[in-house]
């Protein structure tokens, strides 16, 4: 079940008996022409607040929780009370969502949500952002290259307490990536990290990416399967080739990179 939170309304989207069901709740007087599709509810015709309406829909459909929460606007902060009851969902913060409204569900849900996908960065200072990064995250997917008043840096990656971190849009240089790998080998970064995804527009080769790491190439014609410690956006990933590096304590990680028509995507897997 998907809950879409827009500026003037909420929408619940669900599949029931192989049919798409869309139910909407008007919070601020949606224009009549918008209401020509789907079934609409209001406080006047239900006697319910937005939060109560969501809870009622979950109850009558026998749905334990919302699977996907998409924040596109901020109709009322009261909705955050409902967010706190969720235990497993994907959380998106989109462009239409104000910083203040986006922060509260992030604070409530970061530790329990399967994936946090950020299209905006609702933090005006690095201190606020780093406090969020240090929380127990499962999968953090940063879909923005625009930060309000600061640049995303290597220090931010090193302190991020996530099992999986996707930074395809928050660009890092090859020099920064190489330094990150060296910090990992010295155990100077998040110990929970299992998978890091980054991209770069720089030309990548084994020398400029892996210099000083004593990386050992793995045969390109052999496939390996990496299994996450818990269910994230997927349970596992398979890949061929790559370069293995080891820490002094014997912990192994694999670095892969591939670029075709666009930026080069680099993956870093830490084996259990």
Automatic annotation (TrEMBL):
Q: Which Pfam families match?
A: FBA_2 (PF07735)
Q: Where is the Sdz-33 F-box domain?
A: 128-196
UniProt-listed InterPro entries: F-box_Sdz-33, Zygotic_Embryogenesis-Asso
Q: From the Swiss-Prot or TrEMBL record, give the protein name.
A: Sdz-33 F-box domain-containing protein
- Identify the species of origin: Caenorhabditis remanei (Caenorhabditis vulgaris)
């Amino acid at each position: 079940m998907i809950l879409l939170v827009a500026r003037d309304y909420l929408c619940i989207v669900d599949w029931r008996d192989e049919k798409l069901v869309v139910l909407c709740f008007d919070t601020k007087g949606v224009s009549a022409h918008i209401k020509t599709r789907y079934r609409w509810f209001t406080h006047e015709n239900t006697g319910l607040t937005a939060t109560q309406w969501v809870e009622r829909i979950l109850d009558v459909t026998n749905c334990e929780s919302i699977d996907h929460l998409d924040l596109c606007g901020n109709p009322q902060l009261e909705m955050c009370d409902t967010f706190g009851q969720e235990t497993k969902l994907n959380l998106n913060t989109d462009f239409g969502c104000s910083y203040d409204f986006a922060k509260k569900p992030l604070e409530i849900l970061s530790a329990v949500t399967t994936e946090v996908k950020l299209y905006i960065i609702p933090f005006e200072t690095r201190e606020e952002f780093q406090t969020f990064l240090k929380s127990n995250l499962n999968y953090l997917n940063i879909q923005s290259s625009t930060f309000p008043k600061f640049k995303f840096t290597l220090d931010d990656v090193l302190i991020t307490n996530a099992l999986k971190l996707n930074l395809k849009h928050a660009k890092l240089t090859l020099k920064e990536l190489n330094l990150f790998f060296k910090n990992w080998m010295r155990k100077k970064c998040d110990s929970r990290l299992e998978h890091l995804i980054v991209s770069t527009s720089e030309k990548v080769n084994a020398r400029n990416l892996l210099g000083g790491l004593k990386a050992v190439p793995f045969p390109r014609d052999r496939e390996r399967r990496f299994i996450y410690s818990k269910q994230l956006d997927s349970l596992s990933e398979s890949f061929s080739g790559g370069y293995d590096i080891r820490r002094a304590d014997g912990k192994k990680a694999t670095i892969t990179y591939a670029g075709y028509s666009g930026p080069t995507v680099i993956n870093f897997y830490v084996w259990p």
